[in-house]
Amino acid sequence: MKTSSLFNHKTVLSLEVFPPKRTAPVDTIYNTLDELKGITPDFISVTYGAGGSENSQTTLKIASAIKHKYGIESVAHIPCLNLTREDVLLILEQLKEQKIENILALRGDRVPDREPAGDFRYASDLVEFIKLHGDFNIIGACYPEGHQESGGLVRDMKHLKDKVDAGVSQLITQLFFDNEYFYRFRERMDLVGIHVPVEAGIMPVVNKKQIERMVSLCGVKLPKKFISVMERYGDNPIAMRDAGIAYAVDQIVDLAAGGVDGIHLYTMNNPYIANRIYESVFRLMAS
Ligand code: FAD
Fold first, then answer.
1. What mean pLDDT, rounded, does the chain reach?
2. 146 Cβ inside 6 Å of ligand 1
3. Among 32, 50, 78, 233, which is most buried by a count of CB atoms within 10 Å?
4. 13 DSSP β-pair partners
5. Is 170 near ligand 1, meaning CB less than 6 Å away?
6. Confidence of residue 23 (pLDDT cuts 50, 70, 90)
7. Residue 75, strand partner residues
8. Whose CA is nearest to atom 43 of ligand 1?
9. Euclidean distance between CA atoms 123 and 72, whole angstroms
């Protein structure tokens, strides 16, 4: 099923998981998925380390298991910067064999000491290429606070419009902690004429280290309310975990009331947190 069709009926709830680190056997992901069994998401997406084609097999294996073993629609991420056209063609063939119809088409981040492969410069190049080589539902990434390298919000929106026009039928945002950025972003989408559904990416922050990493990696801004939570509970792991979950639930309730198309939960492969959030919000999603 193409996940873009889900938005006609309800507020979509999707989850994101990542392949286990190189030091852990890939099969440990099944423990995570088994423990998510209380949740019935509309789809689960699987990330892909931007290193190159060697990472594709793990992503494909997990996306295939989600679809065929767990009976949940899956989305495979493909970051293109370090892939050649031949690499992508091979991945598309494998996706067709596994009957996976949904791709999150990404540029990926630059890997230190590695020259990009040179065939794809932007995600929109990958979107055009996929369009030519199969009947896939293509999802794109977007940035309510603007992408760090875009040179400003106006340019970023223009590039996003080009990406959507190239063949993207739904969007997922980078995480954010202040819903106002999301609401302003939706207004900008309207202004430039982007009319595809957009899911809000929500990441429950449950420890101080995680947030420091996110701020330096994605450049997201932390609202005052969030900083107060960190200051108050940051050194108490259990209290910080509970506060992080409550903060994410609060964001989701506000977004659902604000008519969001969907919520994409960055689970960080932590079923306990995902389950607790789901218990709090699933009725909102259904209504
Ligand atoms: P693009 O859409 O190509 O945009 C990148 C930058 O280029 C932006 O600043 C844009 O404004 C600019 N730009 C676009 N087109 C043009 C143009 N024609 N001329 C000039 N500038 C242009 N990374 C991974 O490696 N693996 C993953 O699995 C992964 N999953 C992700 C999931 C989500 C939901 C999100 C939001 C991000 C994910 N990322 C992942 C991170 C992503 O790869 C990075 O954020 C990357 O820096 C940008 O990717 P993009 O697809 O948005 O790029």
1. 94
2. no
3. 78
4. 263
5. no
6. low
7. 45, 102
8. 108
9. 26
Instruction: Say how far residue 77 (Cα) sits from the centre of its chain.
Output: 9
Q: Percent of the chain at pLDDT above 90?
A: 81
Substitution candidate for ligand 1 out of 122, 126, 162 with most atoms within 8 A of CB: 122
- 219 close to ligand 1 (CB < 6 Angstrom): no
Concatenated DSSP letters for 121-165?
SSHHHHHHHHHHT---EEEEEE-TT--TTSSSHHHHHHHHHHHHH
104 contacts 45 by C-beta, under 8 angstroms: yes
Pick the more confident residue, 285 or 68: 68
Contact 76 CB / ligand 1 (< 6 Å): no
Question: Is 93 one of the catalytic residues?
Answer: no
Give the chain's domains with CATH numbers: 1-282 (3.20.20.220)
Q: What is the pLDDT of residue 128?
A: 98
Q: pTM of this prediction?
A: 0.97
pLDDT at 53: 74
